[in-house]
């Protein structure tokens, strides 16, 4: 690509430069008129005069503000200092700390650069250049990074630094975290700025251009750039976050916002150690390439406290290794590893060997594990127990020990995490508890696959009974209000049709269920979630399978939780996706350094427990009610369903008629659930459930599922009444031994016994059946000897259908079976769904009718039932009142039961 600028470009640059100079002159003029120092690169502070994070040394006179632009901070803690402040002018941060406020003394963020900027460098030009880094196939690819969008699917999640932006890796690393910077190396602050009140609830940063600072701005969720003033403004919520990140830029000093607490940089950096301050460690991340090197190697983190140097043989390298006190050589892998406390001394030695180039640990790793570089005395602290006393005891007392650990982890990460527990480990209850911990910041938004929206609503009702039922808002139409409830639940698909930019549509607490739905930045789902993620303070991502095939799929989720960890996808891709430059661009489909990635995720944002790890805490069978919706059904089915319900509510002359009416209702229920059932199965597949069983009763449903699976090219077996006995075993074997995703589509009545399918641990009941004994037998196709996991049973239950009556009936009968020891898990404990306990006397009587009609002693001949269902499926709709309106050539349902 040519470096020549066109005359047009040159003219534009010149104009920009002129404008920038004008702006700067204006600022200097304003500053002079306020009788205070201007933000200038020339006002270099004496390095002797301060320590990082010590009380400010630069005394700024009060900034006069008029009454109209007086800023009232939202934090009670400091408000007194303002309300008591005399006169129209606000007192400065320094004065506040000294005189009035009880808050800890605010500190001026002054950062020391190891390598001072060029004197005379203009504040409006990028402070540091990208450097001239050698591009090598393995290590130096990031210097050849593509522009923001070349990150493929994920390149533009949070706006990435543009190609022209200097590479932050190539700049001297900040030393803001140094406790005792070496005096000789202390740098100059080249750019000063300050935070001032903006509109209500926001502040802006008045500062000149600094590429690295712009990167920080762009990583702040609530950022907004005002083109008129050319200034960035942010929500006060992000103040601490921004100031902490800005503090890491050595050459920048930002004045505190009046009335705000000083950012807790000390806490963030207290882990940095004397021997290897973070700044010094971060400096190793840049400038490590050696154009003349003949041997290349790489440092890789291999445990939270150890790193390995992957490099070929070189006598000087081995000599350097041998001098390290914590050295360890693995004879099998032939690799040397060291404790992190030896990282800096070793890297210093290796950098002195001209022929050898060793890629350092990435910046993200250094920041995440900074405490571990301090040596054995500074190993990680236990995660503290979160105070859950303000949360409904129904929820907190039910948490299993590992779930409590999950909540503690989330709180220790300030409500931003990826909870990646194995399926069925209760991510829902943990997420609700985490959200409830931050209840003062509600309303909360839950984004979930559409098939489980109502299940979420039920879960909130069940576990947080103190919530008013009408405070739970399930958004079903694009024009519905997204914030009408305290708890709001919406599907990913609907989200993409709602105006997220609407100021009223942002949430501080966000739960994204099945967050791998966002794995591809290009999808509408991901784009829809983006503005919400940027604005949220607490982000709880839930997924049992955050990445299904490659690490690149994790990127958007990492960015959603920790935007500053890997702000550029390309850097992530080079380290963990084995990025390769092809003719057509970069290929990020590979994987590399996976063990290190796992360590990084676990340290910073991810918690994942496998069933095998917590098996002793789990019941052997875990049943779950999945509330599905039949909203999308045709008017014809809707009308038929309600006619069937009405017919059932009428008195009936005899038992046969009663049964017939019930079965008609049951049959129409099958029709109504068809679409939602398939939607749920599709979601399960998309969530990475590889092998599972789906039981249904109606041929209509079995046919529909198998047809749809064929269309999706998903392998399946089907066993129903028409499957010859010899064939059954073969099909089971096929399912058991297959290594690819497989679904077993089974008839409740024809495949509930005699089959072993324990290669799966998930059973979905697409339909209910009135005989719980049959259901338990069906469940036991996976829950049997040979099963090494606990099994999950999902019952799909649709409101407004026969399920309303069948489900309580099943629950009651299962409880009876459980009491006599015939059902292993207590359904009322594990799968209770209070809204299905109908108090409506009319519904109750229908349920009793079901109970009466299908009691054990009067059990229906299953084959007749199947035949009846088949008849229905064949398109002959039996009439409710068979005596008046009987089909001439087909028997009605009533015929099957009149004996
Ligand atoms: N502490 C608990 N006490 C009682 N029931 C629980 C508890 N934790 C989870 N469950 C039940 O276990 C079932 C599975 O929980 P949940 O659906 O939250 O799992 P999950 O991790 O989200 O699974 P998936 O990844 O399949 O969605 C649900 O019926 C839930 O109510």
From TrEMBL:
Residues 40-49, 115-127 have a biased composition (Polar residues). Residues 140-151, 876-887 have a biased composition (Low complexity). It comes from the Eukaryota. SMART domains: DEXDc, HELICc. It catalyses: ATP + H2O = ADP + phosphate + H(+). InterPro entries: HARP_dom, Helicase_ATP-bd, Helicase_C-like, P-loop_NTPase, SNF2-like_sf, SNF2/RAD54-like_C, SNF2_N. Residues 187-263, 291-362 form the HARP domain. It is found in: Nucleus. Residues 11-25 have a biased composition (Basic and acidic residues). Belongs to the SNF2/RAD54 helicase family. SMARCAL1 subfamily. Its main location: nucleus. This is SWI/SNF-related matrix-associated actin-dependent regulator of chromatin subfamily A-like protein 1. Keywords: Coiled coil, Hydrolase, Nucleus, Repeat. One of its GO terms (molecular function) is ATP binding. Residues 680-833 form the Helicase C-terminal domain.
